[in-house]
Amino acid sequence: MGFEIFKKEEAALAAAKALLQAGTLEGAAAQEHFETLTKAYEKLFKTTKRLVRMSDRNEAELNRATKSLDEKNAMLEGLSKKLAKYLSPQVYDSIFTGAKDVALRTERKKLTVFFSDIKNFTQTTEDMQPEDLTYLLNDYFSEMSRIAIEHGATIDKFIGDAMLIFFGDPESRGVKEDARACVAMAIAMQRRMRDLQERWRSKGFTQPLQMRIGINTGYCNVGNFGSEDRMDYTIIGGEVNLAARLEGNADPDGILISAETQALVSDLVQTEEREAIQAKGIRKEVRAFAITSIMDGFENESRYVKMEEDGLYLLLDLEKMDEDKRKQTITHLLGVVQRLAT
């Protein structure tokens, strides 16, 4: 096998052999010495070529191995991204950074637990086509999940139309700040629901979804539950059940929190005490507080102006109107009102 890099060496060896065959060297000793050097050079040359061949084969194998490794890394990265969609970002990071072991292990922590569902979900959606129901739920969960992640929540699971979310594990900013972050998240969700309801209505859904939220702060068991073959990172305990019970007693589009949570966020939101709740497994009645300041200042931020009464439905989408169009619309509405008044 010839190598381009050995052209000079091959030419030198050929010239040396030609000299030996021509017998033009002076003296037998010189002839013998030159022949010895030529044979040594040829032997070294063959060894070098053999090493180069081996190096080339090794390099080719290394390149194949590197390519295979790159392909497997790309595959693992793709699988990792897919797996991340099934885990809360905090749980995913803690597992892949080694901060938490994948083992059947739990610990007791004080968490703030969020539970939500859709009011009368079955009755509201029973006449919907599967495609419409899928669109509504995916739109709803996508928007709520984005808000949860923005506030640092750990999304536990989706249960039908319900969501279980908590603050305080695997990362915590302290019990008070965890509770405040959870309440701020819940308010942001209910505000976003107003926009979603208008969007769904504009698409022909006459009964937009309404969310109820319950929030409670207390000690829970958190960690991996299940078996060695199938685990679920979740929370259990009476405080979780209480959050669900609060949610069931919340107003549509409302947020109902426990006394424990209310004490931690009393300077953040306005609340009013509601009728106490008798929760299963808890001897005494549970004090409950409804957040009354969910929409405070929201009108100034909202893109919508909405009025809805018997015989009246008015919806202005301010983002879709320039200033002149808004003025024309308002002038027209005032004219209609004046004519009706006279």
Top keywords for this entry?
alpha+beta; Alpha-Beta Plaits
Describe the structure.
- The protein is of the alpha+beta class and 342 residues long.
- The chain folds into three domains: 72 residues; 203 residues, Alpha-Beta Plaits (2-Layer Sandwich); 39 residues, no CATH class.
- It contains ten helices and ten strands.
- The strands form two sheets. Strands 1, 2, 3, 4, 5, 6, 7 and 8 form an eight-stranded mixed β-sheet that branches.
- The radius of gyration is 37 Å and the shape is elongated.
- The termini are far apart.
- The relative contact order is 0.09.
- The model has no long low-confidence stretch (mean pLDDT 82).
Précis, in short:
By secondary structure, the protein is an alpha+beta fold. It has 10 helices and 10 strands.
Count all strands and give the number. 10
Mean pLDDT: 82
Give the end-to-end Cα distance, rounded to a whole number of Å.
106 Å
> Which H/E pattern describes the elements?
HHHEHHEEHEEHEHEEHEEH
Largest sheet geometry: 8 strands, mixed
Separate helix tally? 10
Tell me the CATH superfamily of the largest domain. Answer: Nucleotide cyclase, GGDEF domain
Low-confidence stretches: none
Supply the CATH class of the largest domain: Alpha Beta
Backbone structural class: alpha+beta
| Annotated CATH topology of the largest domain | Alpha-Beta Plaits
Rg to the nearest angstrom?
A: 37 Å
What amount of the residues lies in strands?
15-25%
State the helicity in percent bands: 40-55%
Which overall shape is indicated by the principal axes computed on the Cα atoms?
A: elongated
- The total number of structural domains is 3
Per CATH, the architecture of the largest domain is: 2-Layer Sandwich
